[in-house]
Specification:
343 residues; mainly beta; Tachylectin-2, Chain A; Immunoglobulin-like; globular
Length: 343
Amino acid sequence: GAAGGSTNWHFAHSGLGTFGERAAPGGGAPLGQTLSTAWGDFDGDGWPDLYACNFTEPNVLFRNQGDGAFANQTAAAGVGAEYIDGFITFVLDYDNDGALDIFVGNWSQYPVVLADRVAGKSTSERDRPVLFRNRGDGTFADVTEAAGLGRALGTMSGVPGDVDNDGWVDIYLGNGGPQMGRREPDVLFRNRGNGTFVDATEAAGLGHLGKSHGVTFADYDRDGDLDLYAPVGGAQPGDQWPNAFYRSEGFGNHYLVLELEGVESNRDGIGAKVWVYAGDLMQYQEVASGYSFGNSNSLELEFGLGQRVRADRIKVVWPSGQVDEYRDIEADQHLLLGEGETR
């Protein structure tokens, strides 16, 4: 990303293990200290688009035109998030409508964080996080307040994941700041499945105090639920905190964990699109490497099924264009899906 107004760079892989420099989206113009980026096919045209989260300027959405060039769609899409202090961004389908939404975590000033704690609500629009709901027509709606996320936080990292396996993706945010006197608890926002989130940090036994960078989910013990690693950090001598590792004890819900293995596409299936259908539940995820700031979730995709004991269908669209479909899949499995298996 750009530091101090320097230029962002775009490197294209040759397919032979080397990279070639290309003009950066936006013509290589400085973007105001880009701290985080998120790739996702926001318009469903099969080409991954790019969202850049900036610290000192409004954020930018670049639409992939499919010919190696990108077009700035920020104003048309309504995703500038002109509150500045943007630190992290990631994509998720929080409402299970099959369209990728955008979350932006702003690094709020500490006095505003404390004021929000006292007030129990957002006191400064600039400093709150932002959740953009994809309308599916090329535009987004700011639903932060309606979703219950309007609270200033010193967010420096964050990841989406279905913590309780109920079929609705939750949000975990790592918070804090480099100043010695600034320590903040992390926050878990549980998705209620009705367009809103609730702070479930205390109930889940989380909320480690510190200065969190690089929080990440993975099912390390392969028991079907997401475990959490939270590097707590600290930049100054005498202000360094122990990292935290949380093992999920489970929530009694069913799941499917999918690992993709590309053949014509890249080996890890990065960029693949995956839909899981189970009764009245439809979920959508894309395989991605790198989330928010300084971290990456496991490349395995975890889909919570709630009390459903099987999925009716899994659909995978690979970067190569290959489409694979699987039907009538029993729940509570880790599955390795190879590209072209269902030809």
